[in-house]
């Protein structure tokens, strides 16, 4: 006779066999069977008690994005299940493998309007690549195993709904998971004919560039090799920041609203784009529609999705870039290439000119200078959503040895703190920062308690400008409406942090910055730094008035004065200087 095991214990045994040693969640009576199973495995599997199920799902998603491994979150029946949704949608949109274990009332109480009972299956249909309700105790471990395989196969969310009575049921302890058979997928090789055609297009172009996304995450050196050989400036999507170090001269930054001026200008001036491993939905607005495109992706559905393309290459980014770099002769720098690099150099100098600015409330540049100074070479960053994305993209000099995560395509506020919790759990020996606006921080501020409970040394920076800055800019610049609903009350986040058991510091002046960051890095346990930031908006790259040769001179003058941009020149000036041999 086989030994027996509670079905909930068998389920977590399978999860552990897949290499998972912790889960995020918040207990509920409907999940008592699961909590009992976690207690039984307390020597090998940790339960991370977040203070809101949304935070648990966000932490699981962030960890999956940082590590590539399965993140696991739990939710109880009814409200606990619903609370998971926002974090699960983040995982869906950023293609992160996540398993959600969702409790349900006992089977005998389902579908009869019982306490906390809702029809959970349909609410997860859209967010999940796999969504099933367990119907037998004996089948539960196999269902969990299948869910994990589906999450990895589709890089998405798997949901298993477990009626409470099933987990307490004894079943034979005979199930063996499929974990040992899990191997990484074999990436497709590029078609040699497509490589030849791509090289011909690159050689014929006058203004070629590389636009890469997170699909090129393992190809930083190869991106640089192609850039250097064919003299193509590199521009990334937002979430691909850090694949190539920010200080690399050929990396011009990102493009779009969070980006700097140089990257945004390139897209409208290019005549050829090598489009590598990205699916940014804003790409349709950011590039010359007449530019030729060579697109590289492992998913055929994405080929031509955002731009008309001339050469589709269904292949691994790294393999394709190696093949491209091996072909043809090294090209001489074009006017476009020299102008792009000069533009980026001057942009960085303009940003750096504000590092010692002592105006109050503070500008962001001095704060990011301190973060660049005190961040370890292997630091991990959890970045919230809003103007903090803009400032991080432009002002953080990310190294390839550092890691970061944000809510990319879903862009949910409140991401920073749960992401920092996940980062510290996943990388306990690495320095961890969260960077949030005061709006995003308020949404998940209770997760400071999670960091305190587990003594996680996270440095949590709050940029307090008393406005939902990104939305304010959209209302002012895009829809030209009266500001509505974006104002926030000033909050003493340092005192709030101290009340939660963390260390709290406030930065009001330039003189505070260095001493506070020095203390935060040396602290033991979680730290909150409340930065009283200017309400002035970052320079808009969405509606730039910078070129008097074709734009209204009065609007250019107004724009330059507003953003103190006297030292910034339009890209056309750099192109003219390059043609004249001045750069």
Automatic annotation (TrEMBL):
Q: Which InterPro entries match?
A: DHS-like_NAD/FAD-binding_dom (IPR029035), POXB-like (IPR047211), Pyruvate_oxidase (IPR014092), THDP-binding (IPR029061), Thiamin_PyroP_enz_cen_dom (IPR012000), Thiamin_PyroP_enz_TPP-bd_dom (IPR012001), TPP-bd_CS (IPR000399), TPP_enzyme_TPP-bd (IPR011766)
Pfam families per the UniProt record, alphabetical: TPP_enzyme_C, TPP_enzyme_M, TPP_enzyme_N
Q: Which positions are tagged coiled coil?
A: none
GO MF entry, a single one: pyruvate oxidase activity
- Residues in Thiamine pyrophosphate enzyme central domain copies: 195-324
Per the UniProt record, which EC number(s) apply here? Answer: 1.2.3.3
Query: Which segments constitute the Thiamine pyrophosphate enzyme N-terminal TPP-binding domain?
Result: 6-119
Q: Which UniProt keywords apply?
A: Pyruvate, Thiamine pyrophosphate
Thiamine pyrophosphate enzyme TPP-binding domain segment(s): 384-531
Source superkingdom: Bacteria
What's this protein's family per the entry?
A: Belongs to the TPP enzyme family.
NCBIfam families per record: pyruv_oxi_spxB
Would you tell me the protein name for this molecule? Pyruvate oxidase
């Amino acid at each position: 006779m086989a030994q027996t095991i509670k079905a909930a214990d068998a389920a977590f045994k399978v999860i552990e066999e897949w290499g998972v040693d912790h889960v995020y969640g918040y207990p509920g009576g409907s999940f008592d069977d699961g909590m009992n199973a976690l207690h039984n495995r307390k020597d090998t599997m940790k339960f991370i008690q977040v203070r809101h199920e949304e935070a648990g799902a966000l932490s699981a998603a962030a960890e999956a994005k940082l590590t590539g491994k399965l993140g696991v979150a739990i939710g109880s029946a009814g409200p606990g299940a619903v609370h998971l949704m926002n974090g699960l949608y983040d995982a869906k949109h950023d293609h992160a493998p996540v398993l959600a274990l969702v409790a349900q009332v006992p089977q005998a109480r389902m579908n009869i309007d019982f306490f906390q009972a809702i029809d959970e299956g349909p609410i997860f249909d859209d967010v999940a690549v796999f969504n099933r309700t367990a119907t037998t105790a004996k089948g539960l471990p196999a269902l969990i195993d299948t869910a994990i395989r589906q999450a990895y196969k589709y890089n998405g969310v798997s949901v298993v709904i477990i009626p409470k009575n099933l987990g307490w049921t004894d079943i034979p302890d005979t199930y063996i998971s499929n974990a040992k058979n899990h191997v990484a997928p074999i990436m497709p090789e590029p078609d040699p004919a497509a490589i030849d055609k791509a090289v011909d297009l690159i050689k014929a172009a006058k203004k070629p560039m590389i636009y890469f996304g997170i699909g090129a995450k393992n190809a930083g050196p190869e991106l640089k090799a192609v850039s250097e050989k064919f003299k193509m400036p590199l521009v990334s999507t937002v979430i691909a920041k850090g694949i190539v170090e920010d200080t690399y001269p050929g990396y011009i930054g990102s493009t779009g609203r969070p980006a700097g001026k140089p990257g945004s200008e390139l897209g409208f001036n290019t005549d050829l784009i090598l489009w590598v491993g990205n699916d940014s939905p804003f790409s349709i607005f950011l590039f010359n529609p007449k530019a030729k495109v060579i697109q590289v992706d492992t998913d055929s559905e994405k080929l031509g999705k955002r731009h008309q393309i001339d050469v589709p290459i269904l292949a691994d980014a790294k393999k394709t870039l190696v093949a491209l770099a091996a072909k043809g002769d090294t090209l001489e720098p074009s006017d476009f290439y020299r102008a792009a690099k000069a533009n980026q150099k001057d942009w960085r100098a303009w940003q750096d000119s504000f590092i010692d600015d002592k105006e109050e409330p503070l500008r962001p540049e001095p704060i990011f200078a301190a973060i660049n100074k005190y961040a370890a070479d292997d630091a991990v960053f959890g970045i919230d959503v809003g103007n903090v994305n803009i400032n991080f993209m432009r002002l953080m000099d990310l190294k390839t040895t550092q890691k970061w995560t944000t809510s990319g395509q879903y862009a949910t506020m409140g991401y920073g703190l749960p992401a920092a919790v996940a980062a510290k759990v996943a990388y306990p020996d690495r320095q961890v920062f969260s960077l949030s606006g005061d709006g995003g921080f308020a949404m998940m501020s209770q997760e400071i308690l999670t960091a305190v409970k587990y003594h996680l040394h996270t440095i949590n920076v709050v940029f307090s400008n008393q406005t939902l800055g990104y939305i304010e800019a959209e209302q002012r610049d895009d829809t030209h409406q009266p500001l509505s609903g974006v104002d926030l009350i000033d909050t003493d986040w340092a005192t709030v942090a101290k009340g939660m058991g963390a260390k709290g510091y406030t930065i009001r002046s330039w003189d505070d910055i260095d001493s506070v960051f020095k203390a935060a890095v040396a602290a033991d346990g979680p730290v909150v730094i409340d930065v009283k930031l200017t309400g002035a908006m970052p320079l808009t790259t969405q509606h730039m008035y910078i070129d008097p040769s074709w734009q209204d001179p009065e609007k250019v003058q107004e724009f330059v004065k507003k953003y103190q941009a006297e030292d910034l020149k339009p890209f056309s000036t750099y192109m003219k200087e390059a043609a004249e041999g001045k750069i």
